């Protein structure tokens, strides 16, 4: 290849060097095809121990990332053309160089074509999915939603709709976080098998094109091991999983989003407390069964209604989540609550969303104190988050 093309190729490769350095956890490999007449000589570059392993022409050379451009350009001088494919999670870059020109393109168009080809399976309930069959096949197979033939399993349609609706409900929050921070750090409290974390990981990195890091916490070694296995299968190196009681966890980095799905009773309060203690910028919690307030509250004015056990329990659910919202407001969060899924599917269908906007809210605290006195309650959440703020 001529000198002019080699110089242009080096400029493109300089950009790849920087990209690998910044996105080390997401880099997959570089595939090379050097052409000389009708002959093609192939090579690959992978990452090992913070260095690049360049396999070419029977050799296995380890080189510094900063040597990438110089090394490939030197080899390319001996050939008529080179085709390079750079792969990282969510992005693929193609570089084609010869004596006439050097061109670069991305894979975005190809992803769109894949999604169009799978349109019939992506429109199960006449909606445009956020986690699309085709583009997200590896993810959906790993979490058991997609069969090997690329079709949504019949018994997983409901789950697929639920996780996609979850993304829909937090999409604006995620985009807001992505606009403010270079890397989005997410902690999953009581993560179980971490299906939501895997879906959020995919969506943030491969759809929103933002770097992210996930920390999954659970007291069960069995589910943590299962999560690690799925992460390894997907090559999601930006995830870590810890066997721990969430009450004992303190993050060693900024937390931008704290999530929890169907943590029972006061476990949701402990997840909220972890988020508040670590000054999480956003919180998304979907509570499960709730017993604490049911066993505490009484309200004379409603005795004629709460004498019916089912109605008392239902009101306790409303009071529990309402108290959580007021206490979050008291410590500086803007809050909202929405239906996560239809109540026909599960009565545990509410999603609490909160975004940090300030230090504390005295009015919300007074509202809570009045409510606490009227109901005769002493909830766990108050005991574990208000002392942090000394209010």
How does this model look, in words?
Keywords: Methyltransferase, Transferase. GO terms for molecular function: methyltransferase activity. Residues 158-295 form the Methyltransferase domain. This is SAM-dependent methyltransferase. InterPro entries: Methyltranfer_dom (IPR025714), SAM-dependent_MTases_sf (IPR029063). The chain has 391 residues and is of the alpha/beta class. It folds into two domains: 3-108, no CATH class; 162-388, Vaccinia Virus protein VP39 (Rossmann fold, 3-Layer(aba) Sandwich). It is built from 13 helices and 14 strands. The protein has helices at residues 3-22, 68-76, 108-117, 119-122, 137-142, 157-180, 195-207, 221-234, 266-277, 303-306, 309-330, 362-375, 380-389, and strands at residues 27-36, 39-48, 51-56, 59-63, 81-88, 91-98, 102-106, 183-189, 211-218, 239-243, 257-261, 282-286, 333-339, 350-356. Strands 4-3-2-1-5-6-7 form a seven-stranded antiparallel sheet, covered by helices on one side. Strands 10-9-8-11-12-14-13 form a seven-stranded mixed sheet, with helices on both faces. Strand 3 and strand 4 (59-63) form a beta hairpin. The model is unreliable at 109-123 (pLDDT under 50).
